[in-house]
Amino acid sequence: MAFGLLLILSACDENRNEPGYSYFNDMEASQAFETYSANPNLKEGKTMVGPVEGTIAIHEFAFQFEKTPEDELKAATLVNPMADQFNQAKAEELYGQYCLLCHGEKGDGQGFLFTSKKYPYPPASYLAERAMGKTDGQLFHNIRIGFGVMGAHGPQLSVDETWQLVNYIRHLQAQQ
């Protein structure tokens, strides 16, 4: 008991800026590495290794559009750079993640949220004349910025992924 009391009291000192004895001082005062310096802790051997896989680079948000009809008209002039690079498997996966629940398997707006009555407003049908008449750029704008009550998916998708979704919507429209 006396030894325990002596141990506790020995941990106290007059300097309140010092924590006293530290068992894990390497965690308390870690070594900082400069941005472009050598770093033995990383497999590339350097500190600046690029973005983490799956992250979206800042330049992906280069489209300065807002959720307005005027900006949708401006987006109508965008040309789909991936029109000839349709990756159906990837696009279908993206559609399943971001669109299926609302727009349904066929893109007819009969997704689970609407058919289960969990959401009162019918989502847009890609098969409707209005959607068929949109350019790829307008669909791109609608996906990235949102349309009506649909929220923006731009922060979640890369530009290339958005174009793949546009291609998939065109694929669904062609099937009908």
Walk me through the topology.
Elements: H1 2-10, H2 25-28, H3 69-75, H4 88-98, H5 100-103, H6 112-115, H7 129-132, H8 136-145, H9 159-175
Helix pairs in contact: 3-8, 4-9, 8-9
Overview of the molecule:
The protein is mostly helical and 176 residues long. It has a domain at 58-175: Cytochrome Bc1 Complex, Chain D, domain 2, CATH 1.10.760. The chain contains nine helices and no strands. The longest helix has 17 residues, at 159-175. The radius of gyration is 27 Å and the shape is elongated. The model has no long low-confidence stretch (mean pLDDT 83).
Largest sheet, strands/sense/barrel: none
CA-CA gap between termini: 84 Å
Radius of gyration: 27 Å
Work out the helix count: 9
Low-confidence stretches: none
What is the tally of beta strands? 0
Query: What is the assigned CATH homologous superfamily of the domain at 58-175?
Result: Cytochrome c-like domain
Strand content: under 5%
Would you state the CATH class of the domain at 58-175?
Answer: Mainly Alpha
CATH topology of the domain at 58-175: Cytochrome Bc1 Complex, Chain D, domain 2
